[in-house]
Structure to design on (186 residues):
C-alpha cells in the first residue's frame, strides 16, 4: 500500500508537505485526496481581520519550520472546494496531468497569491497541463469523489490536514519532515 494523503489547498502546511514530496520526487507514490478543512471560506476569497492574523501566523510558522520552502502570504485563504472538485475530475482523466495541476494550484495560491476559488483561474491552470479539460464546472462524478474523500477523512478519525495513512498502514497527522517522507517512501 502506498501513502494516502488528505490535503487542502488552502492549508500552508499541506503546501509544504506537497513541496517536500515534489522535491524528493515522490509525488507519484502518494495517493492525494482533497478535503476541505475550512469549507465555510468565501468565494471569491476575502480577508477578514481574524483570518488575516491567523494566516500571517501560519506563514511565519512555515518559514521557521521549513526554511527550505519558498512561501508568500496571500491576501486571504480561498474556499478550496472548486479546486478539489477540479482535481477529482482531472484524476479521472489523467493522473500525471492531475498531479501537475495539483502543483500548479498550490503554487498559484502560496507563491502568486491567486484566488483558487475562481473557476476561470482554475480552468486556466488546468488548461496549462492538459487539453482534456473542456468544461468550466465539475462533473457529477467529481463532486461525488470529493464527497467520498471528505467522508473517508472524517471517518478515519484524522482531524487535521495534512494527514493520512503511511505505507505501513499507520495513520499520521501533520507536516512530516523531508527525512521522514524519504524514509516512509523509500
Amino acid at each position: 500500500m502506498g501513502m494516502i494523503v488528505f490535503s487542502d489547498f488552502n492549508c500552508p502546511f499541506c503546501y509544504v508537505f506537497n513541496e517536500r514530496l515534489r522535491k524528493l520526487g515522490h509525488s507519484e507514490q502518494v495517493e492525494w485526496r482533497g478535503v476541505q478543512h475550512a469549507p465555510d471560506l468565501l468565494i471569491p476569497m476575502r480577508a477578514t481581520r481574524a483570518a488575516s492574523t491567523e494566516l500571517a501566523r501560519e506563514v511565519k510558522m512555515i518559514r521557521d519550520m521549513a526554511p527550505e520552502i519558498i512561501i508568500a502570504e496571500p491576501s486571504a485563504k480561498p474556499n478550496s472546494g472548486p479546486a478539489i472538485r477540479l482535481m477529482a475530475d482531472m484524476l479521472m482523466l489523467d493522473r500525471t496531468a492531475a498531479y501537475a495541476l495539483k502543483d500548479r494550484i498550490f503554487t498559484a495560491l502560496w507563491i502568486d497569491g491567486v484566488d483558487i476559488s475562481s473557476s476561470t483561474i482554475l480552468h486556466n491552470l488546468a488548461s496549462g497541463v492538459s487539453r482534456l479539460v473542456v468544461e468550466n464546472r465539475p462533473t457529477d462524478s467529481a463532486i461525488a469523489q470529493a464527497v467520498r474523500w471528505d467522508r473517508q477523512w472524517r471517518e478515519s478519525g484524522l482531524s487535521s490536514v495534512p494527514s493520512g495513512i503511511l505505507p505501513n498502514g499507520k495513520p499520521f497527522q501533520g507536516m512530516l519532515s523531508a527525512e521522514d517522507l524519504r524514509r516512509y517512501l523509500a
Residues 3-185 form a domain with the Glutaredoxin fold (CATH 3.40.30.10). The chain has seven helices and four strands.
